[in-house]
């Protein structure tokens, strides 16, 4: 009886530890930076500001997208992300890093980090109608009073 209680307490402590760990280590910053530099930065620029008229900013806008389930999927399925050479785990790592470091104010408090499993299940097929999907999402954000994500970039 006593041993069972001790074992249970140990399991509970371990589970609490693991939950803490999962939260603290939703990305590996060094690897994410490397993935970003090699696969995303060339178009989105070093700090994620994008290129006016050509490439959307990821800074201060992705957080708004991931607040909606369809937006969360959109981010995984845009061609630049979906078709990148990054593995599922690497793409999850890069996206979590972008959300944490470039979107601290726009990322929802309840944001659950992307996982390799989630990326694997959703990244393909890549979106073919990006502009239309994006316009629908921006319209929904605007309906919710969020005007920070520009319709045209
Ligand atoms: C060859 C240039 C290029 C590269 C490389 C690239 N992107 Fe993009 N990205 C774009 C363009 C252009 C868009 C606008 C949508 C479209 O036309 O695909 C975009 C859109 C996005 C969006 C949607 C943002 C919005 O406001 O609509 C996300 C998220 C994104 N890219 C993430 C990434 C990530 C992560 C990487 C690296 C793994 C990456 N992209 C690599 C050019 C690129």
Automatic annotation (TrEMBL):
<keyword id="KW-0349">Heme</keyword>
<feature type="signal peptide">
    <location>
        <begin position="1"/>
        <end position="24"/>
    </location>
</feature>
<keyword id="KW-0732">Signal</keyword>
<dbReference type="GO" id="GO:0009055">
    <property type="term" value="F:electron transfer activity"/>
</dbReference>
<protein>
    <submittedName>
        <fullName>Cytochrome C</fullName>
    </submittedName>
</protein>
<keyword id="KW-0479">Metal-binding</keyword>
<keyword id="KW-0408">Iron</keyword>
<dbReference type="GO" id="GO:0046872">
    <property type="term" value="F:metal ion binding"/>
</dbReference>
<dbReference type="GO" id="GO:0020037">
    <property type="term" value="F:heme binding"/>
</dbReference>
<feature type="domain" description="Cytochrome c">
    <location>
        <begin position="27"/>
        <end position="102"/>
    </location>
</feature>
<dbReference type="InterPro" id="IPR009056">
    <property type="entry name" value="Cyt_c-like_dom"/>
</dbReference>
<dbReference type="InterPro" id="IPR036909">
    <property type="entry name" value="Cyt_c-like_dom_sf"/>
</dbReference>
